[in-house]
Specification:
alpha/beta; 17% strand; lipid metabolism; CFA/CMAS; CMAS; MeTfrase_dom; methyltransferase
């Protein structure tokens, strides 16, 4: 097994048909690849077995979560370089390279290389997936029990862990940064940017004292806290996470706002209140799913009084030619957001309009999410030992990979995020919006 790194580099380049852009360090301490490039550290031969049994993204993700592989050097640069090995361009969207790799391995001239890979990998037994992975789910998507289970997997990993990553704001969605931060200068903090995002939403909704606000997917209560404290509204926040609800109630009580803010563990499909003056849904609609989105839009429309506004803040993907063939990335589905689905912004706008809403404004804030994610990654890395103690090393590794990869996806325009402001107009057609709304003062 001497010079495992050199043999792996040669094999990978023969199969992929392109030079490796990263350096490899193998378990035998051998190294190969371009000097000065980020180094993919293969700590255990088990990583190769993971790739043999699950070529592509899921095999690499399992190896990463289990600690079989690591990166030495700039993680963002390494992920950017490795993306070309995991994905290939096909038509109008990137597709997993797994099929291309399997086709290459079937070629006669590659078979000897494949046999060598089997020898390097060791025992031909599929390794057990890391404990942090969600197993395949059964039954219909987006039923109430299945959605609650999926939300619990993502959010009930410990409030203290999230506090390390998110910072004091406890806001788990895209912050709103100023032009100086976009240009690379450090002027505002993450806390400033999250406060500005919450305030922007309140202004877009035109909140006024005494109004009633519903926050769908309220997380740890930051939106309802800000709206009640700064705008004098009465608010209801709903979440499916027991841990989120417990901390949100504690924060509200400590702020002296328990008489104006209510937190419920409740699904949006279970709300039967009197109409609300405004609804915010921030980073929640990604969990709804294509099959249920019309129901989601109809439910929010019914919960608004005439003249009421909805602010729907949602991650979007690029449209593809064959929408029926779209699937969530395996790593995201198995480790991060079980059953989550992204939609193009055009479909989201169309479905809100189908429900009866008038869409009045769409603001794309893609670059803001990249900045936010990089801040969260920095928080995690700066508190790595504590994060591992609070959860597990595997879970912390999931989050580091997920957030860094997502930051790159936003930067490269593979995904985006949009704030869609919609209104339930009155019978007269009056939307109650100012003629020039972009200053968001009324």
């Amino acid at each position: 097994m001497a010079d495992a790194a050199g043999r792996l580099t040669k094999l990978a380049e023969e199969v992929l048909g392109t030079p490796l852009p990263v350096r490899i360090r193998a378990w035998d301490r051998s190294e190969s690849g371009p000097p000065g490039a980020p180094t993919l550290v293969i700590r255990r031969r088990r990583a190769l077995r993971r790739l043999l049994f699950k070529p592509g993204e899921l095999g690499l993700a399992r190896a990463w979560v289990a600690g079989d592989i690591d990166v030495q050097g700039d993680l963002y640069e390494a992920l950017d370089l490795l993306a070309g090995l995991i994905w290939e361009r096909g038509g109008d969207a990137p597709k997993p390279r797994r099929a291309a790799v399997l086709r290459a391995l079937a070629r006669p001239e590659i078979r000897s290389a494949a046999r060598e890979l089997l020898m390097l990998a060791g025992a031909p037994v599929p390794p057990t997936p890391p404990a942090e992975e969600v197993r395949r789910r059964r039954g219909p998507l987006h039923t109430l029990p299945r959605d609650k289970e999926a939300i619990s997997h993502h959010y009930d990993v410990g409030n203290d862990f999230y506090a390390l990553v998110l910072g004091p704001s406890m806001v788990y969605s895209c912050a709103y940064w100023g032009s100086a931060e976009t240009a690379g200068d450090t002027v505002a903090t993450l806390e400033d940017a999250q406060r500005d995002k919450l305030d922007l939403i309140c202004r877009k909704l035109g909140l006024q004292e005494g109004q009633r606000l519903l926050d769908v997917g309220c997380g740890w209560g930051s939106m309802v806290l800000h709206a009640a404290r700064e705008y004098g509204v009465r608010a209801v926040g709903i979440t499916l996470s027991e841990e989120q609800a417990a901390l949100a109630r504690k924060r509200i009580a400590e702020a002296g706002l328990a008489d104006r803010v209510e937190i419920r563990v409740q699904d949006y499909r279970e709300i039967h209140d009197e109409p609300f003056d405004a609804i915010s849904s921030v980073g929640m609609a990604e969990h709804v799913g294509r099959a249920r989105y019309a129901e989601y839009a109809d439910a929010l429309y019914a919960l608004l009084r005439p003249g009421g506004r909805l602010l729907n803040h949602q991650i979007a993907r690029r449209p593809v030619a064959d929408e029926e063939a779209y699937h969530v990335d395996e790593f995201i589905d198995r480790y991060v957001f079980p059953d989550g689905e992204l939609a193009p912004v055009g479909r989201t706008v169309g479905q809100l309009e189908d429900a009866g809403f008038e869409v009045r404004d769409v603001e794309a804030i893609r670059e803001h999410y990249a900045l936010t994610l990089r801040s969260w990654v920095a928080n995690l890395e700066n508190h790595w030992g504590e994060a591992v103690r609070l959860t597990s090393e595997g879970r912390a590794r999931v989050w580091r990979l997920y957030m860094a990869a997502c930051a790159l996806s936003f930067e490269r325009n593979r995904i985006g995020v949009n704030q869609v402001l919609a209104v339930r107009t009155r019978e007269s057609g009056d939307a109650g919006m100012p003629l020039r709304a972009r200053d968001w003062r009324s």
